[in-house]
């Protein structure tokens, strides 16, 4: 963006502590780390990777199951990336600032909205996710 003359300061707009790059924005920035830490806990993502490529590789390798837990984890990762990036852009282009808690809450609401729209088989895992996220998924109709 600096090459285009649109954004000339290379400081992270979320924490103002370091130069902005992908690694900093999602793993070293205090603001993003607070958001990601809360989101990981809510989604039961137990990875400690602090590197973008390693995190994505881990998700790709571990996401072979199609159970509700992995749906939640993938939705949470995608929503976290989206809303952290949206907060970054809001600060740069609109001078709009949200707290890390507000960004986290947007992530949770987005994941809940998407979970409400999926159809699942009834299981203990599904019921546990529904209780934790305070949602109700649609159920597959049993074939009688």
UniProtKB/TrEMBL annotation:
InterPro entries membership: RVT-Znf
Q: Where is the Reverse transcriptase zinc-binding domain?
A: 1-36
Give an example GO molecular function.
RNA-directed DNA polymerase activity
For whether the record's keyword set contains Signal, the answer is: no
> Has keyword Transmembrane helix?
no
Query: What does the UniProt keyword field contain?
Result: Nucleotidyltransferase, RNA-directed DNA polymerase, Transferase
Source superkingdom = Eukaryota
Q: What's the short name of a Pfam family annotated to this entry?
A: zf-RVT
Q: What is this protein called?
A: Reverse transcriptase zinc-binding domain-containing protein
Organism the protein comes from? Artemisia annua
